[in-house]
Design goal:
mainly beta, 430 residues
C-alpha cells in the first residue's frame, strides 16, 4: 500500500523528504492549552480513513489515524488529535484522494462530549465497483443530566456509485447492497452499544465484505474474508472510571548489537482497563542464550483494577537461578515489582517488592542482595552494569533489576551496544 503525506504534515516541507520512501503521516496529539480536568468518566474518540483486513489480520492501515489518550481513551478533558494523508493506493482493493481525521473530548455547558470525524475523497474500491466523491463518518457521544446520548449527525456519502447504481442521497443507517460474485457492501454502517453506565457509537461509512472464494479483479486474487472500511469514526463514554493503566513485564531480553538475540521471555501485559483484579501470569521454565546468560524459572504477572475512586496496577517479573556472562552476575532469585496508582488527580509509583536473593558480582565483593536502587558499576573491558535500575517518568515507573550495556570492545565477542536485561517490570497510570 502507498501512503502520501498531506503537505501540512510532510517532512518535505522541512527539507527532510527522501524520495522513494513510503511515508505515513504522524498523528498529531494536540492538547488544549487549558489545564486538563479530571472527569470520572472514560472518554474515547478515534478515527481513521481506510483499513483492509482479512479475517483478524490487518493488511493495510488504519490510515490517517487520530485519537485522544491511550488505546482506551482518557479521563481528562480537553484533548484533541488530528491527522491527514494526501492519498492511499492499494489497487485493486482501494484508492483514495485526501483523507483527514480529527478526534476531540471536551466539556461543553456542563455536558461531557467525545466526538470523531473521518473524511475521505475520491474513493475507488474493487477496481471501480464502489465509487464515491466524498465519504464522511461522524460519531458523537455525550453525557448530561438526562444520561447518555449518541449521534451520527454529519455523516454523509456524496457522489456514490455502487455496482453501476447511483446512490443519490446518504442512505439510511446499515444499508446493505449485494455485490454479485463478490460479497456485499454496507453503507452508513452504525454500531451502537448502550448500558446504564456507558454508551458508544461506531460509524463506518463504507464497509465492503468479500464472502466469495476465488474473486479475481484486474488479475489479482482477492482473499475470502477481506474487509474494506472507508471513513471510520468512534466515540464513547463510560462512567465511574478514575483513570487508565498500562504496563508489561518480562524475565529476560538480550540485544546483541543491533540484533535481538533473545526476545522478551514470558512477557505479559497490563491492559488499559486493568484485569478486574484478576492476577494474570506467564511462565517459562528456562531461558538460555549461549555465552550470554542462563536462567531458570521465569514467572511474570500483571494485575490491575479501576473504580470510580482509584486506578491501580502492578506488574512483576521473578527470575530464578540467574547467571549472566558465565558468573559475572549471579543470583538465586531476582524480582522486579512495579506499582502505579491514580487517586483523584494524584499519581504514585513504587518499586516496593523488588529484590535480590544471594546477589553476587565478580570483582565487587561489597555488592550483595541489599544493593541500593540505581547502582551503576563499571565493568573493566566491557561496559556498564546497572543493578535495581529504576526509571521514572511523568506517568510510569520501570524497574530493570539487572541491565548490562556493552560500551567497549571486549574479548567476549559482544558488539558495542549489546543490552542484556534480567527481571524487568513497568507500570503506568493515566
Amino acid at each position: 500500500m502507498k501512503y502520501t503525506v498531506h503537505p501540512k504534515y510532510s517532512p518535505a516541507s522541512k527539507g527532510g523528504f527522501i524520495a522513494g520512501l513510503v511515508t505515513l503521516a504522524v498523528m498529531a496529539g494536540l492538547t488544549s492549552a487549558t489545564q486538563a480536568a479530571e472527569t470520572g468518566f472514560l472518554l474515547s474518540a478515534n478515527a481513521y480513513g481506510t483499513q483492509v483486513k482479512v479475517g483478524n489480520v490487518v493488511k493495510s492501515g488504519p490510515t490517517a489515524k487520530s485519537g485522544c489518550g491511550n488505546a482506551c481513551g482518557t479521563t481528562q478533558v480537553p484533548a484533541h488529535g488530528e491527522n491527514s494523508v494526501l492519498m492511499v493506493t492499494d489497487a485493486p482493493l482501494l484508492s483514495t484522494g485526501v483523507i483527514s481525521t480529527s478526534s476531540d473530548v471536551q466539556e461543553l455547558n456542563g455536558s461531557l462530549q467525545a466526538s470523531s470525524i473521518a473524511e475521505a475523497h475520491d474513493i475507488n474500491l474493487l477496481g471501480g465497483l464502489v465509487l464515491a466523491d466524498e465519504v464522511t463518518a461522524e460519531s458523537t457521544t455525550t453525557h448530561d443530566t438526562l444520561g447518555f446520548h449518541s449521534s451520527a449527525n454529519g455523516s454523509s456519502l456524496i457522489g456514490a456509485i455502487v455496482a453501476g447504481n447511483i446512490i443519490a442521497v446518504t442512505p439510511a443507517p446499515n444499508t446493505r447492497i449485494n455485490l454479485a460474485g463478490i460479497g456485499y457492501v454496507v453503507l452508513n454502517e452504525q454500531i451502537a452499544k448502550h448500558t446504564a453506565t456507558s454508551s458508544s457509537l461506531t460509524v463506518n461509512q463504507i464497509h465492503v465484505v468479500v464472502t466469495a472464494a476465488n474473486v479475481v479483479i484486474n488479475n489479482i486474487k482477492i482473499a475470502l474474508g477481506t474487509n474494506i472500511i472507508v471513513s471510520h469514526a468512534v466515540s464513547g463514554l463510560t462512567s465511574g472510571v478514575q483513570g487508565t493503566l498500562d504496563g508489561s513485564a518480562y524475565g529476560t531480553r538480550a540485544r546483541i548489537g543491533n540484533l535481538l538475540a533473545s526476545g522478551p521471555s514470558a512477557q505479559i501485559s497490563l491492559g488499559c482497563l486493568g484485569t478486574k483484579g484478576v492476577l494474570k501470569q506467564n511462565e517459562i521454565l528456562q531461558v538460555q542464550v549461549p555465552n550470554v546468560f542462563v536462567v531458570g524459572d521465569v514467572v511474570d504477572t500483571a494485575q490491575g483494577s479501576i473504580s470510580a475512586s482509584v486506578a491501580m496496577g502492578e506488574t512483576t517479573s521473578t527470575v530464578q537461578a540467574v547467571d549472566v556472562l558465565a558468573g559475572l552476575v549471579t543470583a538465586d532469585l531476582v524480582k522486579a515489582d512495579a506499582h502505579s496508582m491514580k487517586n483523584g488527580g494524584a499519581y504514585s509509583f513504587s518499586d516496593s517488592g523488588s529484590k535480590f536473593v544471594n546477589l553476587a558480582v565478580k570483582g565487587f565483593a561489597n555488592i550483595d542482595a541489599n544493593v541500593a536502587p540505581n547502582t551503576k558499576l563499571t565493568i573493566a573491558g566491557l561496559g556498564t552494569l546497572w543493578l535495581h535500575r529504576v526509571i521514572h517518568s511523568q506517568n510510569k515507573i520501570e524497574v530493570r533489576m539487572i541491565e548490562l550495556i556493552v560500551t567497549q570492545n571486549n574479548n567476549l565477542g559482544l558488539a558495542i551496544g549489546t543490552d542484556i536485561q534480567v527481571a524487568r517490570a513497568e507500570a503506568s497510570a493515566h
